Amino acid sequence: MNFDIVESFSQMVKEKGIDKDVLGGIIEEIFGLLVRRKYGEEAEYDVVINMDKGDIEIFLVREIVETVEDPNKQISIEEVQKRGNQEELEVGEEFVEKLQLASFGRRLIILAKQNLNQRIREIEKEIIYNEYNDLEGEIVVGDIYQIRKHDILVNHNKNELILPRTEQIPFERYKKGETIRGIVKEVKKGTSGPMIIISRSDNLFLRRLFEIEIPEIYDGIIEIKAIAREPGERAKVAVESQDARIDAVGACVGMKGVRIHAIVRELSNENIDVVNYTENPLVYIQRALAPAKLKNIEIDEVAKKAIVTADSDQVSLIVGRNGVNIRLAMKLTGYEIEILREEKPFDEYEDDIELIDLKEELGNEVYELLINHRYDTAIEVLTAGPEKLKEIEGLDEEKINEIIEIIKSQFEEEE
Questions:
Q1: Are 181 and 208 in contact (CB under 8 A)?
Q2: 180, 174 contact by CB (below 8 A)
Q3: Helical packing angle, 397-414 and 378-389, nearest 10°
Q4: Helix boundaries (H) for 273-311
Q5: Confidence tier at 249 by pLDDT (50, 70, 90)
Q6: What is the distance between the alpha carbons of residues 408 and 32, in angstroms, rounded to a whole number?
Q7: pLDDT per residue over 87-102, tens digit each?
Q8: Which of 90-104, 204-218, 344-358 has the lowest mean pLDDT?
Q9: CA pair distance 207, 353, nearest whole angstrom
Q10: Radius of gyration from C-alpha coordinates of the chain
Q11: Count of CB atoms within 10 A of residue 361's CB?
């Protein structure tokens, strides 16, 4: 019976990765609990376990006395002699008795088993917690086994990982059974076991992907200085080469963009801009706002503010779709960026627009008024300006401003 017990414990060591000495200590503690339950908390005992031989021995130590007052701690000399002990023991000496496991009774053995299972579960939880705590910030690969309303459950080495909605890439679609990658973002201790949170939207996930796909980053030749990201939409990554012979941006993009495309595919086609880092804030902001062309940048390094002046046709590039480009540039550089729009001189527009082509936008009445006053093209109207246009009967200041805005918007669309 003892051998079977130790054999089952040895199997736990192999299957669950529990340290043999730790398990031996638990077994010793559990069998000690049996002795204390049967013989009292003050009972003297010794539990000897040999995990290799599959042997457990429990010894109860009692004092030999003439008259027994506490049977749990004492045994009479008469009882010792009846047992025919080979050694000649005397009153005052210790009597060591080997206890049989069956002598504890079924109820106590079941209690011991329950305690042991509980301790094993606690150790398992601690092992899993420590394992993933060490993996925090690293990429893990698992299989999706359940898709719930607010999160996704991922199986990794038979352990459950959670990908909450807040850590998912927006609009990314997941399927049960498919392989997924993410970084271990947080490991929390819970009543039912460790809660392991993974993330695909964290900046650190993007950093780890760069380290995987770009050997120069992994080796420390190229350093990632900053990351700004709106998951699933766009990201900006500032890099710096520690070797003058290596182009940091070129190395990250790779031949024909093969390196960066591998990262983009992993992130569900999230656009990634890679820029060269510099400590010069003026140049850094200019690079962060690319591909827009800027006319001037005023820097306030103390307040961390920048005023950017650009032609009106460049403003949409600076801002980006839904303002994403300028938001990322501010995150990347750490500067609050304000835009000053500068109107482009009319003579710099390459192509003029015939007013007849804007008849629908201007309206038939306004079109007829302009044509009758010999304004045949858009640039002619803009060059005339509000003061000249006021001379036309039927056009007030509000209407003139509206006409100018309509025409300007047509040029900006062409750009």
A1: no
A2: yes
A3: 160
A4: 281-288
A5: very high
A6: 90
A7: 677 888 888 888 887 7
A8: 344-358
A9: 48
A10: 40
A11: 13
CA 294 – CA 340 distance, rounded (Å): 10
Helix or strand run (H / E) with residue 365: helix 364-372
What's the rounded Cα separation, in Å, for the pair 58 and 47? Answer: 5
Q: Cβ of 248: how many Cβ atoms within 10 Å?
A: 25
Q: From the CB of residue 44, how many other CB atoms can be counted at a distance below 10 Å? A: 15
Dihedral pair phi/psi, residue 105, rounded to 5°: 85, 155
Sequence-separated (6 or more) residues with CB below 8 Å from residue 231: 169, 170, 200, 201, 267, 270
DSSP structural state of residue 183: E
Q: Which residue type occupies 74?
A: Q
Show the tokens assigned to 354: 């015939």
Burial of 378 (0-12, 13-18, 19+ CB in 10 A): buried
Cα–Cα dist 217/206, whole Å? 12
Measure the CA–CA gap between 83 and 87, rounded to whole angstroms. 11
Report yes or no: 228 and 332 within 8 Å, Cβ to Cβ: yes
Q: Which amino acid is at 284?
A: Y
Task: Compute the Cα dihedral for 363, 366, 372, 374 and give only its sign.
Answer: negative
Tell me the two tokens of residue 180: 């997924």
**How many CA atoms lie within 13 Å of 119's alpha carbon, on the beta-carbon side?**
18
- On whether the pTM is more than 0.85, the answer is no
Amino acid at position 172, single letter: E
Domains and CATH numbers, the chain: 2-130 (3.30.1480.10), 135-201 (2.40.50.140), 204-272 (3.30.300.20), 278-342 (3.30.300.20), 351-414 (1.10.150)
Q: Return the number of other C-beta atoms located less than 10 Å from residue 267's C-beta.
A: 21
Residue 2 vs residue 233, higher pLDDT: 233
Query: Is 310 in contact with 338 (CB distance < 8 Å)?
Result: no
| Cα 199–chain centre separation | 3
Report how far residue 95's alpha carbon sits from residue 86's, in angstroms, rounded to the nearest whole number: 12
Own/partner long-range contacts of 405-412 (Cβ < 8 Å, ≥24 apart): 406/358, 406/361, 406/362, 407/353, 407/358, 407/378, 407/381, 407/382, 408/312, 408/343, 408/382, 410/353, 410/358, 410/361, 410/378, 411/313, 411/344, 411/349, 411/353, 411/378, 412/312, 412/313, 412/316
- Cα separation, 166 vs 224, in Å, equals 25
* Residue 167 near residue 180, CB atoms below 8 Å: no
